[in-house]
Amino acid sequence: MSLEETERTVREYVDVLLGGGDFASFFADDVLWTTMETGDQIHGREAVRDFILGLHTQYFDASPELVNVTLADGVAALEAVFAGTHIAEFAGIPATRAAVRLPYAMSYDISDGKIRALRAYFPITALVQQLRDAAAVHA
C-alpha cells in the first residue's frame, strides 16, 4: 500500500469518525484492537466499532481532539486528547458527570484501504483514577 493510499484511508477514517459517520466501514472484517496498557484485545469490525462507540457515547460523552497524525507506507500514528464527560458506570464507578481529559496515541496497520489493526496507547489507569477522584469529591 502506498503512502498516498495510507494517507487517504486515515484522513477519511478520521473525518468520518469525528463526523459521527460509519467509521467501521474502514475496518477489515478481522480487525484487531489492542489496548497496550492492559493487553486487552477486541476482534472483529462490529466489536471494535461497538467498543469505540461505547467509550464515546455510552460511558462518556466524549470526542477525540486530534493533535497530530504521522503516516508511512501502510502504517499511521495519531496523537489525540480524549475529552468528555463521564455519563455512565465505567470500571465499576457510577457516573460522576466529571470532565475528563487524557492524552493518548493510536497506531494503525493498513492494507488494501482497510485498517487491519489498532493499537491504543490509552491511559486506562489514569482515566480510572480521574473518575475515582471525582467520585470521592461528590461522596
Automatic annotation (TrEMBL):
<dbReference type="InterPro" id="IPR032710">
    <property type="entry name" value="NTF2-like_dom_sf"/>
</dbReference>
<dbReference type="InterPro" id="IPR037401">
    <property type="entry name" value="SnoaL-like"/>
</dbReference>
<dbReference type="Pfam" id="PF12680">
    <property type="entry name" value="SnoaL_2"/>
</dbReference>
<feature type="domain" description="SnoaL-like">
    <location>
        <begin position="10"/>
        <end position="116"/>
    </location>
</feature>
<protein>
    <recommendedName>
        <fullName>SnoaL-like domain-containing protein</fullName>
    </recommendedName>
</protein>
